[in-house]
Amino acid sequence: MRIGLFVPCYVDAFEPEVGIATLELLERFGLTVEYPYDQTCCGQPMTNTGCHQEAAATEALFVENFSGFDYIVAPSGSCVHQVREHLTAIPQTDEVKAVRAKTFELVEFLHDVLKIEALPWAEFPHKVAYHSNCNALRGIGHARPTELNRPFFSKPLNLLKKVKGLEIVDLTRPDECCGFGGTFSVFEPGVSAKMGYDKVTDQARAGAAYVVSADSSCLMHQKGCAERLGLPQKYIHIAQVLNGAAA
Amino acid sequence: MSADDLTPRQTEDVLHREVRAPSDESERGPGGERLQHAEAASKPIRADAPREPQPRGAKVRGNRPIDQAEAAERFLAAPLHQKAHDERLWDVRRKRDVAAHGIPEWEELRELASQIKTHTLTHLDHYLEQFEAAAKANGVHVHWAEDGAAHNRIVLDILKKHGAKSLVKSKSMLTEECGFRHFMAANDIAVIETDLGERIQQLDEEEPSHVVMPAVHKTRLDVAEVFARTLGTDPDNDDAHYLAESQRETTRPLILQADAGLTGCNFAIAETGTVVTCTNEGNADLSGNVPPLQIHSIGIEKLIPKVEHLGVFIRLLSRSALGSPITQYTSHFRGPRAGTEMHMVLVDNGRSERLAMEEFWTSLKCIRCGACMNTCPVYRRSGGLSYGATYSGPIGLIIDPTFNKRKYSTLPFSSTMNGSCTNVCPVKINIHEQIFAWRKVLAEEHRIPLLKQGMMKAAGAVLSRPAAYRAAIQTADSALRVLPRFAVYNPANTWGKKREMPHAPRQSFHAWYRQNRMKKETDA
Fold it and tell me: Where's the Cysteine-rich domain (chain A) (predicted)?
């Protein structure tokens, strides 16, 4: 099985530990993981702003880098959502379609493809608020969102359940958007930051020592908001927790 | 630990404790339980100290693109208003969840409603003709209006023919679209709104900020101020009962003396020619049934084929809107009372054009419940007036550009595209996907700011060239300039104003991989 690791641009630049944890975690399950060296980005910043034409070359590069793998795995719900749902600025050849269909977010890859049963190395004895990234939650179906009258399920929480000592705390608004929203965060900074402040205040009030999420972009926004408000909780990607990060 | 222990639960607490009233003065039932009025909050929320002027909406300058972000900043700068607004609407969203989750077949109902609308809209010509024939057979005068101006002229002609000088009306978003009140004022017709929230907005000369709760952005103190100024009430008395009763006492005589009455329409039933209105105040009944001349304004997308389909929508409407099982009044207007005339005006106003838009026609399924607004985190923090349009919130973002692509070109960007709106929509409009699709249309037609498009072009150029990308992200500072997800090159640094900057790691993942893994490969 050939696995291609996609490390999104902002993980590459700002949160390299998340990429390292993802790589190590996949290797713990005996997988051989390749990292295509010329990778950059999935094209999301451009398409989310409506600029599909401006995204075409980046999308083509993505397909060039990841063509031929059995699975492409990335630690980001929003980038996987982009690849799967919105990588449409280039002609949809069989190659492009195959890459799009084979791209998985880390949690769903572990949960649905590997169907992992145990994480014996993982221990995280802390109170945790889980943050559902909106694209992971409502876009690629990580969990049942609160709006829908369907039986509850949550892939990330099923995985976190296997982590020794981890305790989940309840939020007033468990799956409300944190306000990052890609370029929304810079084009509408007032509302974006207020949403972030409300989110991190909710987490602090719930007694969370850590906030865990499957998306570094939301975490980066929330971390920036929490630091500005002087709140104590820390932010960590689910890949790190599942890989056995001590704290 | 069982799976249940990890299942997150929404807690009952409010996020902003500053606006939680210290005591609950709500009316009590015989058993001492809090009475839950259909439109009331499930917990008392108030924003009274320090007294804060009400923030006003977007600055509208002709056809110039609306600056929603600017108006939102002013709303945020009135924290008590913003917090009360957010808590009030979040409470409605939570009540909606409880109501929706109480119906086992809820998701099937949504699907059914969506399909009924799909069928009706794709056979709209047929159902409109059926409706017209049925209404005429009921003795109703049926009119067709191509746009808002035609609607207003038709109604004015009817009024003139009867020598009517005053008109009472119930809330109707369609008439807001048409600029009805302003037109009638210019033609010396006294229009009186009978919905309490809409009346507050009329007296304050402000547009409604929400399709179901027109004055939800106002606090009790704001209403006390408006009523003191316009109705002569005691400016220091913000007791809700006092204010509601004062409005009722001053408006009731106007209803009884009105020459004509007008209602909007929630559902128009093709097989029977019936107009159905849903209200909690009974004001559509007063507007329709009291005056000797009766007019109903109907958007052509309001059609449903048969009475048997109505139940599906009635079950969804109020649960989605307010979390109550049904509106207090569901009224069927079918034919004129003895000795009076009934008119129905079927209005297009851009709907046919929208019906032909491949990516956007399903927005015509909207039943105006406002659930997408209540759940929208951006709407709750910016207020409905910040959109500077008849329709605000998520549904507004996808409908408004069909009315005016230039003026509303900015609105589809006032969203994080989180998708909650789509999930609460009772007729399953893919709202957040249409927001995404609108952005594409607007960029292709160069209707987004040049600066924004230029930045995306630059980002695309860097992100499609590995060497350029590597050079750009060597330091966190330079990465912040290049990676548009965080901080597009921006001298004002809008990221850093409100948030701490991300801390620069020692090296990128890429550099770590080269150092730790590629070296290994070479060694091996």
Answer: 4-83, 128-221
